[in-house]
Write a structure and sequence with these properties.
single chain, Rossmann fold, binds nicotinamide-adenine-dinucleotide, alpha/beta, 260 residues
Length: 260
Amino acid sequence: MKQRAEYGTAFITGGGSGIGRASALLLSQRGARVAISDLNLDAAKEVAHEITAMGGEAVAVALNVTHVDALPDAVSWAEARLGPTDILVNSAGVILVEPLLEFSPETFNTVMEVNVTGTFRVSQHFARGMSDRGYGRIINIASVSGMRAGIGRAAYGTSKAAILGLTRQFALELAGRGITTNAVAPGVIETPMTTACYTEETWSRVLAMVPTRRRGTPEDIAEAVAYLASPSASYVNGEVLTVDGGYMAAGMTQTGTLQI
Ligand code: NAD
């Protein structure tokens, strides 16, 4: 496996908001050139602006991860400006919640298409170029929901468990080509995804299950992404780095409070 002294070029899906945005900013601070892709081009442009204003190198590119036909052009456009991609961060994702017995096939398919098929097709596309060049880092944003069931999360939890499966599969099949694939499994992180549906009351119920008793931040997750993307992580492959304030480690009572 080739060794590198620096980060190189990163491509981030869902980079216009939350965890993707924080990862883009931190990777740039660590010296990476960063392509910020998102369904929401304006949001991606804002992040690219933030980075260039701080002296970093970044471009914004429109990319819906479910539109795979648009992928080659979007990637070529970004790589023509920043160079070939060394690091892929799959952060684009959606959560749609419905009660299990009423869960609609349309909702289920939408979540699977963005979170699983999108991650798979985008990763597969980048892995071909990384494979030719003999170096690559793929980092998937999974979730503790892929390891523990949650009410209404038949699609989201299943999609995140599938991402852990994809992570292992890529790790096995691409390791010989100089590519490592790992996942970060965030706990509950304060981003537009959660603030859209969490009231103060929801937060206090959630924090009752988190030993560190504070809300996770996108920067907490970006630190894990940057580590897995770094030259120091060259022997870490197929791993899941859980960043959840101890949520998964703690024993829960039936009422969802901490068992201490
Ligand atoms: P967010 O909503 O702030 O950011 C998600 C971004 O993905 C948005 O900019 C959105 O435009 C983009 N996006 C959505 N669908 C897309 C598509 N089809 N193609 C391209 N871009 C698309 O949410 P976040 O909290 O930063 O979530 C990022 C990732 O982290 C997601 O995969 C999410 O499931 C995961 N995650 C979040 C939490 C949390 O508590 N916030 C916890 C665990 C895992």
